[in-house]
Design a protein that fits this description.
The chain has one domain. The longest helix is centred in the middle third of the chain and has 18 residues. Helix 6 packs antiparallel against helix 7. The chain is elongated. It has eight helices and no strands. The protein has 138 residues and is an all-alpha fold. 71% of the residues lie in helices and 0% in strands.
Length: 138
């Protein structure tokens, strides 16, 4: 398995960010994830915005952006591409902070698998620990 210097650089940039930054505010993420508005007292526009935010909290924006850019079935086609998976994980973490989305674990696992295949157990372990620190559970 080969990977480019650009992919390793992207991983190291994400890793540095995860290791040096604080985890997202748990209460804020959970608040976004668990919106419980008073629908009866909302205007049509406020209701529409509320449903849009609820949908974003469920889906985020990362998957649809990558699907548009790379096509249907991108996850399977790019499962061994470190750069794509690193970018996807970064997007998932941004969605979590912005919309309260729960990051799908598959892509972070793929990063770890790719690193172990590259004989970079050290980076795999560092990434796993740093990533877990930033994911907000329920």
């Amino acid at each position: 398995m080969k990977t480019s210097e650009k992919d390793i650089s992207a991983l190291l940039k994400l890793l540095a960010h995860l290791e040096t930054s604080d985890a997202p505010n748990r209460q804020e993420v959970l608040k976004k994830r668990n919106i419980r508005p008073d629908y009866g007292n909302m205007s049509d526009s406020a209701l529409s915005e509320c449903f849009r935010l609820k949908e974003l909290a469920q889906k985020g924006t990362t998957f649809s952006r990558f699907q548009q850019r790379l096509g249907d079935g991108f996850a399977k086609r790019y499962k061994d591409d470190l750069g794509v998976n690193v970018d996807f994980v970064w997007g998932l973490l941004e969605d979590q902070t912005t919309y309260g989305t729960w990051p799908a674990p598959y892509y972070a696992r793929r990063v770890g698998i790719i690193l172990r295949k590259l004989k970079r157990q050290d980076l795999s372990e560092r990434f796993s620990l740093a990533y877990c620190k930033h994911v907000i559970g329920s």
